[in-house]
Design goal:
Distance between the termini: 44 Å
Strand content: under 5%
Shape: globular
Number of strands: 0
Length: 321
Amino acid sequence: MERLATTWALFQALLVEAMPFLLIGVALSSLARWISPGGQWVRALPAHPLLGPLSGAALGFALPACECGNVPMARHLLVKGAPIATALGFLFAAPVLNPIVLASTWAAFPDQPWLLAARPLGAVLIAVTLATLLRFLPESQLLQPALLEERRLSQPLGEVTLLERRSGLIGAPASGSTPAVLGSSRRPPLGQVLSHGGSEFLELALLLVMGCAIAALVQTLVPRQWLIAVGGAPTLSILSLMLLSLVVSVCSSVDAFLALGFAAQVTPGAVLAFLLLGPVMDLKLVGLFGILLRPRAILLTAGAASLVVLLIGQWVNLVLL
């Protein structure tokens, strides 16, 4: 009964922490859909392999939300025809490159200015690496079928054929999509935007609830003390804190304060690894990523992000220890 109570308490804490940011993300996505229904500015974003992810990451300064809130915004960018690399750069880097997260990092570690510089730089490096890697996958193997159909509706006929568009023009309409809005430059009625936003929020909230339940259960079964106990070893400390970031699934806006609690017991590279990997991949995000990416792409993201974070942590330990 004690473990059940602990799991329930952790589940509530994760959900209360993440749900407001998910709501903010859906609200921003709906607002962007209402203000710019055609999404012309989205398609004007650079498609360059390097400039694309960098410009996507820079959007994090204008759209401050944690990793949960970024998922609906990234989905909006992809639906409106943003270059893949740009949307992925936003998805992976913006949870760190926003004023709230940078301010919380500075507040938690005011005597370690290197961390304030290393965290955003590391986030950009991870985002560029992941965006470059995932670009090699065909869109049909990268994006979920429903998202791909909505995305093709917003692209010019010079880029996709009528048969590729399928939904809305030829064949049955895609489930959950609003063909009357997508691809049109006419501003939709506010009621229609709110209805679409409400449906999107409920869909994402259900996935978030499932992710929080899994994360709370794993946290209860795997005590944090076991992971922090190996904090003195350079490589093991990084690996243990990376695993902890996946399990704890704390929001990027407050994870710096959690890291402060065990920073003195582990290596500097392990602290940075904890702050970098969590915003990109954790247990509660797996379900949310499922509305954007196919399972193969999610596995590739998890593996590549872990490898890059491990290398960054090793390099930091090599310099600072």
